[in-house]
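RETRY 2/3 - previous attempt timed out on the joint model. Re-submitting the same 530-residue input unchanged.
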Amino acid sequence: MAALLEARSLEGSYGRTKVLHGLDFAVEEGGITTILGANGAGKTTTLRAVSGMVKTSGEIRFAGQRIDGRATEDIARLGVAHVPEGRGTFSQLTVEENLRLGAYVRRGTGALVNEFARVYEYFPVLAQRQRQVAGTLSGGEQQMLAVARGLMLRPRLLLLDEPSLGLAPMVVREIFRIVRAINKEERVSVLLVEQNASIALALADHAYLLETGRVVMSGPAADLQRNDAIRRSYLGY
Amino acid sequence: MDIFIQQVMSGLATGGIYASLALALVMIYEATEVVNYSQGEMAMFSTYLCWSLLQAGLPYWVAFFATLVLAFVGGVLIERVIIRPVEDAPILTIVIVCIGLLVILNSVAGWIYSYIQKPFPTPFPGEPFKLGNIYLGKHDLGEIGVTLVVFVLLFVFFRFTTLGLAMRAAAQNPVASRLVGIRVGWMLALGWGLAAAVGAVAGMIVAPVLFLDPNMMGGVLLYAFASATLGGFTSPGGAVVGGLLVGVIENLVATYVSFIGTELKLTVALALIILVLLFRPSGLFGRVTVRRV
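RETRY 2/3 succeeded.
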């Protein structure tokens, strides 16, 4: 399998503060890769670097094309759907308007109706909330809306930033089940950033462990799950 | 009673103009959190362009729509060339830039066209209608009609088109907008263009009443500020309601409070701004925003 997304000696900084110190990682076409790490390890920054939201150096390739240094909106237009931490939905707009915006770059490509139907099939609860303002949804529903909006882009790569944050375990399981379905049925590759290591490792096929902006361990998710150090520090048993 | 209705009607007519300019202010404020102090002078300058086109012999409505296009392009250019470089600067910097723009536009208009008042034609000439004892000027009715058309068009644009939706999204959440591929910078420029066009409508409609001169919009801008403050700087609908209310209040106070009359009318706008800021700072329909510091 070829890598859809590949980063080489990626550095990222906010102003003068360097947060990423030369990362190498890849997301396989059709695969689910997860980046684990504690608070402040640089997980969110890594996703932001991919989306062109922080200053970077090094190399990022998407589908063989260099994307480092390009504008966020241009990277989105290539088929990278970034679901940011804290969801980033348009809280004053309705569910339907949020989804319409998700398909913004695909204007004129025909039947949006089918797209809505497809997305509502994954997230039936959103179909019932179409006219509701996003800010009035529950936390879980807002997270689902954020993923659904990403899906409207018909992405090749879905970037998920801590989708489990602040949600009840049952809701988290539901969302992860849907992400797996999307990955299998739509062949959308996923790069998932999580603090909740056990659920992320169960979903992913490849994993990286980040500590203060450096990759300290990587390999098949199953291997990391069995690793004693990871078990003690991140899985808690 | 007849006098009352008469004053309310003409209050609504001038109120429509305040509402248009207030709406232009609110559109830019919502998108960029900038209060555009040069909005009035941009409208005045557009009206002069219309005057030039009319002098060149163009029919009124051709000149009117050509001016809208010119104002739109001018608004976009001002955002791209003048506002963009100071986008991330402290708010005071942007305020100073806007005031500088006000002074420049005012002086350039005076330099090109002189400070002598010029008559400006109305597209709605003719004798007033008479309903009982009430006279309704054709231009007054036309003012109300034109402003209503502008509001309906803007509402439809922002509510039902994808571009309008993208502009609202860019104003609310620029980061998330970039992530869905919206070119946020261009949306802001477009907002300035639209606001400039709406302001141009206000200028062209008010010019037949006030006569055209470089300082024409000074008072109107003050009323527009009062309108936007009353309706709430974060609410386009509020700006419209605020504009109409200010127009009516201004007329009624001038008619019924003898010591104010026409000379002290402008003071009413200032008093209104102060009262609203004292008792309801977010305006009638505005969002209350809480900021952690």
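The longest helix of chain A spans residues 169-186. Closing ticket.
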